[in-house]
């Protein structure tokens, strides 16, 4: 069974029906959804952008001090700054959008409860959503919501005690990838986008952390980084995901095959690919 562990709902970009169609075409049985993080964000298909993305990956990999500065510059005053455009970041995640999507396609969608620990009301509603059908864990975004990883302590303690996973998009806060594993060693943790912005340093650390995993989602990555992450950590620690609809250029034209190809073309056995494409993730979930 193929399960995408990281995808957002934003019907101003991609409708639920189109998502199901794309999943069907690519044999994706289930997708774990997250509330939209920011307002509608289409990207232009330009060489300029592709070159910038390549440079960004290179800097993060080889000169992190410079890479982190660029990474940090992507988020400013509640806006995501991308290629000269600004997109409003949603401070309080709308988990009701995910609940509604699960209601409509209960066999196809799972849900992450997105939380912003800087908003007490957002923390209060986590348990409420976790009790709704299909919700499997908690998503947090210290990068876009601009807080220290330590702010996640109460939520992490709760997830650890419930035995449910968290998925986290890290900020560039120094050594922040060590904080939750060190303080909540039984917490099941997925670092989004292969642990951006730390990548190699984080991979080295995660190798010895039994409950920490990475996802392969988003255009922050490319096939080479996914390959390096798998080589560094082994196939049991890597989870397939897309991070759509972000990265798409036109309404309802999301290409599901790209991210799946990143896994399909790895030089590992089909059995090992099955773990990345779904078994590892399903192993973390209680409800399935
Ligand atoms: Zn995402």
From TrEMBL:
InterPro entries in UniProt: ACMSD, Amidohydro-rel, Metal_Hydrolase
Domain Amidohydrolase-related: 3-280
GO MF annotations, alphabetized: carboxy-lyase activity; hydrolase activity
Keyword Lyase: yes
Pfam family, one: Amidohydro_2
Keywords: Lyase
PANTHER family the UniProt entry points to: 2-AMINO-3-CARBOXYLMUCONATE-6-SEMIALDEHYDE DECARBOXYLASE
The protein, known as: Amidohydrolase family protein
Lineage: Bacteria, Bacillati, Bacillota, Bacilli, Bacillales
């Amino acid at each position: 069974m193929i399960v995408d562990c990281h995808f957002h709902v934003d019907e101003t970009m991609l409708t639920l029906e189109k998502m199901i169609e794309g999943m069907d075409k690519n044999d994706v049985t289930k997708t774990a959804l997250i509330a939209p993080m920011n307002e509608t964000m289409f990207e232009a298909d330009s060489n300029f952008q592709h070159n910038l993305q390549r440079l960004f990956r290179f800097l993060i990999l080889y000169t992190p001090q410079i890479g982190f500065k660029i990474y940090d510059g992507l988020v400013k005053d509640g806006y995501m700054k991308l290629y000269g455009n600004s997109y409003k970041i949603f401070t309080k995640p709308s988990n009701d959008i995910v609940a509604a999507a699960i209601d409509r396609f209960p066999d196809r969608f799972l849900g992450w409860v997105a939380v912003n620990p800087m908003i007490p009301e957002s923390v209060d509603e986590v348990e409420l959503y976790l009790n709704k059908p299909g919700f499997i864990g908690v998503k947090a975004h210290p990068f876009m919501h601009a807080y220290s990883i330590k702010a996640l302590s109460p939520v992490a303690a709760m997830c650890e005690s419930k035995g449910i996973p968290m998925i986290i998009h890290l900020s560039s806060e120094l050594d922040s990838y060590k904080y939750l594993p060190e303080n909540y060693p039984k917490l099941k943790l997925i670092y989004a986008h292969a642990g951006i912005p730390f990548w190699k340093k984080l991979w080295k650390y995660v190798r010895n952390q039994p409950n920490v995993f990475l996802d392969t989602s988003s255009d922050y990555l490319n096939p080479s980084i996914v390959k390096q992450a798998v080589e560094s950590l082994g196939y049991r620690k890597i989870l397939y995901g897309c991070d759509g609809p972000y990265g798409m250029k036109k309404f309802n034209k999301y290409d599901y095959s790209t991210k799946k190809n990143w896994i399909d073309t790895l030089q590992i056995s089909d059995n090992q690919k099955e773990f990345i494409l779904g078994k590892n993730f399903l192993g973390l979930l209680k409800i399935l």
